[in-house]
Amino acid sequence: VRISHGSYKGYIGNVKDSALSTRKVEPHAKRQRITVNRNRVVSIKNDSQTPRCGYMIRIDLIR
């Protein structure tokens, strides 16, 4: 999942626990679980939707 709002905006991680209104997410960048409102979490369907660092660098060099 990707966190879409708040201080952790842009972080990508795994959902470790789910409640009615919140999700406990473990971001890949931090090995701690954070509680996020379920409206602030977006599902990522596959890796092709996640930009890679090398891809972003190539775009900057072309421009």
Automatic annotation (TrEMBL):
It comes from the Eukaryota. Gene3D superfamilies: 2.30.30.30. Residues 1-41 form the Spt5 KOW domain. Pfam families: KOW5_SPT5. This is Spt5 KOW domain-containing protein. InterPro entries: KOW_Spt5_5 (IPR041978), Rib_uL2_dom2 (IPR014722). Signal peptide: none annotated.
